[in-house]
Amino acid sequence: MSKKRKISLSEDELVLALRNHEKVAVEALYDMYSSSLFGVISRIVIDTAIAEDILQETFVKIWHSFSSYSTDKGRLFTWMVNIARNLAIDKIRSKDFKNQNKNQEIENNVTSIDEQRNTVYKPELMGVKDLVQTLKSDQKSIIDLVYFKGYTHVEAAEELGIPLGTIKTRLRMGIQELRKHFN
Fold first, then answer.
1. Which residue, 15, 66, 147, 165, has most beta carbons within 10 Å?
2. Is residue 33 located within the same domain as residue 108?
3. Residue 22 belongs to what domain range?
4. Which of residues 94, 118, 142 is at a domain's end?
């Protein structure tokens, strides 16, 4: 039995295939981005099974809402990360999720803690953490809260004790600085 070869397309080829709803697009999308998107989701949702469900939801949402993606507004990966991140945050804010976590037995908590220690996602291996460290400290702390810890802009403003408008401005300026490394 031979291993299936992973499909890899250029971003332009992938965008075109997704626009045309080609089967190869779904396979390439999964092969190229599943581990990165799962890493983003796992940072927010610790439970592996729930994170896997959210990853599946992410791909379904990407497939069904691809018509809303515009290359003028940013890169495909950034758009997909935002979808994954938003679905993960929506999940941990949902009443079902909060109730489920309140009702867990002690054995489940021990298992959950063990799984946390074995997480595979390491943004420092992708270089993102290193790039964030080059930012000004005020931008760095906001990006850390919003993107790595899943805070909303309002929660970050409350945590840091600064106005919401300042949070949004510093976040935008930090992201613009980070984009210089990718463009």
1. 147
2. yes
3. 1-118
4. 118
Render the burial of 163-180: b for 16+ CB within 10 Å, e for the rest.
eeeebeebbeebbebbee
- Show which of 118, 135, 154 is a domain's final residue: 118
- Residue-wise pLDDT for 49-90, tens only, equals 899 999 999 999 988 888 888 888 788 888 999 999 999 988
Is the full-model pTM beyond 0.90?
no
In this predicted model, what pLDDT tens digit does every residue of 109-166 receive, in sequence order? 555 555 555 544 444 445 667 777 788 888 888 888 887 788 888 989 999 999 999 9
CA nearest to 112, candidates 38, 45, 55: 45
